[in-house]
Design a protein that fits this description.
Helices cover about 45% and strands about 10% of the residues. This is PucR family transcriptional regulator.
């Protein structure tokens, strides 16, 4: 095949370019084109990288080469012999040369047609790019330009390496999060990047402008077909992704992958490898794999609860990538820990984390999956997958029952009070939905249920729904309503004004027993005469008859509102900083 110098830049086809200076690039130089280049062989190898340009006229040039050189020659020692020309080209191929440019002109500077035919025969069928020039050129100019390009390319490579090194060193020094490292990697590569653990769960990702749902669609299924490497590179499979392992050798906990094509694998591999090292350092600095998963789930849960942040398709895709299996229903759950006397915020946070890990382990034992995140200090939220509505309560009873049993102390020796085995947490369950976004919105309701249930004198259930907290739940929902406040203060006015706690306790005891004086006297250790005197005094101060059922109902509602005031957080504080919810209502009967 002949390539005329006027057409060389447009017709030099073949395989994709290697990074840096290539044979194809050298052939497009004006100095080479002025020699009327004709390509005799090796079109497919024109994209090969050129490491150096070497001038040689000796027939035995092989020992002088190390590989990757483009050899310039006038062919004086072999142009008259087909055998000699063949040995010259054999030497170049055996030494790994990138190609040969051979100038064949006579003493008068005209094309040496006989020599061209000798070289054409020797080059036929070779993979090595062999180019013949039939016009005289100055080799020194070719070497000057080529070496300037090579040195410039090397300096550019060094500069890129320095910049990449500085970027990831700074990220490590700043203690950057895994998500930030992934974001910076995607920015440097201009391509989507995904960090996954060994179970192919997506810990962090950046779609780099592409569709996130498409990127993460069936991620685990696709990733399983891409074999792992112990170094940075590609590994053939159903998908051929550029990847780098994350973690120290022998203890890999994940990998960083670019699931797509890249213009330059060599440069991308350098970036990806440094990013993997930065992620490994982040883990060694104190974050572990579970922390990463929890951070990723917390980020998704935050997005799920933001109006219009995600559509259902993207929400489900991202949740599945984090390990939440597709389910018919999703159950919103909030678990609220009781504050222990004298407990500091750190102790509460440690108990919360331990309880969440214990809960997640029980969910896995039940062959279910979940997303979880911390809410305000001392509580965490969960979206639990359930296969069917009729199985929902059975799953919850099993999980929360086991959780309570694992926390209960050993009472077999008779020295521990069984009541001390009551769990120090309360679980609220919101409205179940087949929509992941609707279930996430139900976490607010589950939070309210857990807060209200925590004020119950006796918690007999493993978990609570709104239907389980009844009037107390209504009062909690309306506790900040000005009309309810006015009603309660009107009913209890004299007792509240005088801050008469003893009388309020007696009224609560009376109402709890439905006005049954015999039961009140026995429970309160009162004589009948003392009881009648207290009732009469209370009726006089309140201005109502305690024998009237409607009066007792009104007083019960007002007293319930008064008792719950300050124990249930405001709705706008559900996602804010930790609050002191106050003590739980005691289960001990008040003294009369």
């Amino acid at each position: 095949m002949t390539i005329l110098w006027e057409e060389s830049s447009a017709r030099l086809g073949g395989r994709p370019e290697a990074p840096g200076v290539t044979v194809r690039g050298i052939l497009t130089l004006d100095e080479v084109r002025s020699g009327w280049p004709e390509l005799l062989s090796g079109e497919d190898a024109l994209g090969s990288a050129v490491r150096w340009v070497h001038i040689a006229d000796s027939e035995r040039v092989g020992p002088l080469l190390e590989g990757g050189e483009l050899v310039l020659s006038t062919g004086l020692s072999f142009r008259a012999s087909a055998a000699a020309a063949g040995r010259f080209l054999d030497d170049l191929e055996n030494a790994g040369a990138a190609g040969a440019i051979i100038e064949l002109v006579d003493a008068q500077g005209r094309p040496d047609a006989a020599a061209v035919e000798v070289l054409r025969g020797a080059a036929a069928g070779r993979a090595l790019p062999v180019v013949v020039l039939t016009r005289t050129i100055k080799f020194v100019r070719v070497t000057q330009v080529a070496h300037r390009l090579l040195v410039g390319e090397q300096l550019a490579r060094v500069e890129r390496a320095r910049r990449v090194h500085e970027v990831f060193t700074q990220l490590s020094l700043e203690g950057a999060s895994e998500q930030r490292i992934v974001d910076r990697t995607a920015e440097l590569l201009g391509a989507a990047v995904v960090l996954e653990d060994v179970a192919h769960r997506v810990l962090a990702f950046n779609p780099a402008g592409t569709d996130a749902g498409e990127l993460l669609h069936d991620w685990a299924g696709r990733a399983r077909h891409v074999g792992y490497r112990e170094d940075t590179g590609r590994r053939a499979g159903t998908a051929d992704w550029l990847q780098t392992p994350v973690g120290v050798h022998g203890r890999r906990w994940g990998r960083l992958v670019v699931p797509g094509d890249l213009p330059n694998d060599a440069d991308a591999a350098q970036v990806l490898e440094r990013a993997g090292q930065a992620l490994t350092l982040a883990r060694m600095a104190g974050r572990d794999e579970q922390d990463l998963l929890q951070q990723a789930q917390a980020g998704l849960m935050h997005d799920l609860r933001q109006p219009h942040a995600l559509d259902e398709r993207e929400a489900v895709t991202r949740a599945q990538a984090l390990g939440l299996e597709p389910s018919a229903l999703y159950v919103p759950i909030v678990v609220r820990l009781d504050r222990l006397p004298g407990e500091n915020p750190t102790g509460l946070q440690l108990r919360e984390r331990a309880l969440l890990e214990q809960f997640a382990a029980l969910v896995r034992q039940a062959r279910r999956s979940l997303l979880a995140t911390g809410l305000q200090s001392g509580s965490f939220g969960v979206l639990l997958g359930a296969p069917a509505r009729q199985l929902e309560d059975g799953i919850l009873e099993r999980i929360f029952g086991q959780l309570a049993e694992e926390q209960a102390p050993d009472v077999s020796d008779g020295r521990t009070n069984p009541e001390e085995g009551t769990p120090d947490w309360t679980a609220g369950v919101g409205r179940t939905s087949s929509s992941l976004l609707e279930a996430a919105a139900g976490l607010d309701g589950a939070t309210q249920v857990a807060d209200i249930a925590a004020t119950l004198e006796v918690r007999q259930r493993r978990y609570y729904r709104f239907a389980d907290i009844r009037l107390r739940g209504l009062m909690a929902a309306l506790h900040s309503d000005a009309r309810v406040k006015a009603f309660a203060e009107a009913e209890l006015g004299p007792l509240l004004a005088e801050q008469d706690a003893g009388t309020l306790d007696f009224l609560e005891l009376y109402l709890r027993h439905g006005g049954n004086k015999t039961s009140v006297a026995r429970t309160g250790y009162l004589s009948r005469a003392a009881l009648y005197a207290r009732v009469a005094n209370l009726q006089e101060r309140l201005g109502v008859s305690l024998d009237d059922a409607e009066s007792r109902a009104a007083l019960h509602v007002a007293l319930l509102w008064h008792r719950m005031r300050g124990q249930v957080p405001d709705g706008d504080a559900l996602h804010g900083p930790a609050r002191n919810y106050g003590p739980r209502v005691s289960g001990t009967e008040p003294a009369p």
